[in-house]
Structure formats: C-alpha cells, structure tokens
Amino acid sequence: MNDNMKEDVLRVLLSEDEIRAKVQEMGKKLTEDYKGKNLLLVTVLKGAVVFLADLMRQIDVPAEIDFMVVSSYGSGVKSSGVVKIIKDLDIPLAGKDILIVEDILDSGMTLSYIKELLQSRGPRSIRIATLLDKPARRKVDLQADYVGFEVPDEFVVGYGLDFDEKYRNLPYIGILKPEVYSD
Ligand code: IMP
Ligand code: MG
What we know:
Order of helices and strands: EHEHEHEEHEEEH
Shape: globular
Distance between the termini: 8 Å
Bound molecules: inosinic acid, magnesium ion
C-alpha cells in the first residue's frame, strides 16, 4: 500500500460527482415514497456508512437510523448465508417502514438472511436500497428496491467499501492495481 492511497487505484469506476448526483436522485425518490411513513434506515456496518451518511441528508421526511453488526459463521456454514448477530438493532421494529441501506449487493446471502430476520419482527414494510449491484454474482433470489449503479463483476473499493479494511475513505469508487493484492 502506497502512502498516497490514490496511487493504488488503477481506475476510477464512479467519480465523486457521479456518486453525488446519484445519491441526490435516490434521496428524492425516497422522499416521495416515504411521505407519511415511519421510515427507519437500517445499516449493517461497516461498508454502507458513507452511503448512509450522504443518503440520509437527501431524504426530506422524518427518519430514524439504526445499526447492526454481523459476522458470518465458519466457512462451512457461510454458504448458507447464516450470520451471527454481534450487535442487534436498538429500535423495536413494530410499525416501522424499514429501508435496509447497503453498499453493495453481491451474492445476496447475508442480506437475504437479515431481511428475513427483520421481517419476523413485524415491521410495516421492508425494502432494500443499495448503492451498487453486482447481479452477475447473485446466489439467492433477492433484488434491491432501489439501486444506484449496476457494476461489473470486479472487486471495487472506496466510498465505504474496503479491501482488507482499507480504502474505505477513498472519496470515489475504484478498482485497485493488481499488485496491491499480491503485496
Ligand atoms: P453478499 O451480498 O452477502 O455476498 O456480501 C456483500 C458484502 O460483501 C458487501 O456488504 C461487502 O462488504 C462485500 N463485498 C462484495 N463485493 C465487494 C467488492 O467489490 N468490494 C468490496 N466489498 C465487497
Ligand atoms: Mg467488506
């Protein structure tokens, strides 16, 4: 890893301007769709925090936020998408209109497990907003209700997304140089 993080980036996939415009557009749509509702934004840490922080400020209806921390069980069980809850939500879900805010929808396994878990707690509605969607990688039948960008099946970092916990603080979304992975 270079001292200058941006030197590790091979190519910018989505610029700050493109992301900003998209987040604004999504916020407008959500403002329309959640008028008169009981919006609760639910984010699974950590990747989606940057998206959440920007998106929530583009939503002009009352909204609450809450966070979950989960970890996948050992490799054998991982393929089932079963996750262990490390930190659960604080806010009760009865009567809430939940919007799960995700950074990227990949296989969809983790999110589909979490969606069912939250569904069982009796919210009024539950939808998914994801900044990025990699449909080519999907392993379960799960679709986001709001998608920022469809991306190709390449590993991306930045704007919250990490490689080995790094690069989350890149202001744009990019693809790393191959040598970064082999270092
Ligand atoms: P899945 O949909 O359960 O397979 O997992 C989605 C999670 O995998 C995301 O929340 C990210 O943390 C991580 N992930 C998937 N694809 C990428 C990527 O291209 N870059 C960084 N993280 C990724
Ligand atoms: Mg990650």
